[in-house]
Amino acid sequence: MPHRSSTDEPSVTLGPLDLRTRVDEALAVQAHAFGLSDDEIAVRRQIVLRHITYPGARALGATTETGRLVGFVYGMPNDRTHWWSTVVEPYLRSRGTDHWLDDSFVITELHVHPGYQNRGIGRALITMITDTAYQPRSILSAIDHESPARGLYRSLGYDDLAQQVLFPSAPMPYAVMGAPLPLLRPAP
Known about the structure:
By secondary structure, this protein is α+β, with helices and mostly antiparallel strands. Helix content is about 30%, strand content about 25%. The protein is built from five helices and seven strands; from the N terminus they run E-H-H-E-E-H-E-H-E-H-E-E.
């Protein structure tokens, strides 16, 4: 069911997103927010289309009144056999936090078009998708430097589980973060 949050711009509606049919729009948002090349977009397109077929995978989108996609989130129950888990597991194990890979909902991607950031859209998308998770916790990875995204995740209850995580072909190190569910809400 679509949801319009009072913290969002009135013209943006949040709701289920058919990521299979809107993958190119979602990747355009990610490319704009993250600065991806055409080659990176092509690789990510195949990854997203594969991910969305995994059991329990789901996506939400933020659309304007004209139907333009300006933000999205997708995730799934974590599985230690998935590529992401196999990369981060040694980093988590070295810190004694690899149990976070079990019984967790992983936020695979969360992106908001820069023109729509700082309006509560990212916060609303991530809380909406994790509110429907049956797992007791959530994990994600974010570029390992102080940024508005890391600040958002911390405000929701995510803590660093591992830092300086190196993904093949990624130019910058990442941090793996985890939070118990439900995520924290701002004080009224």
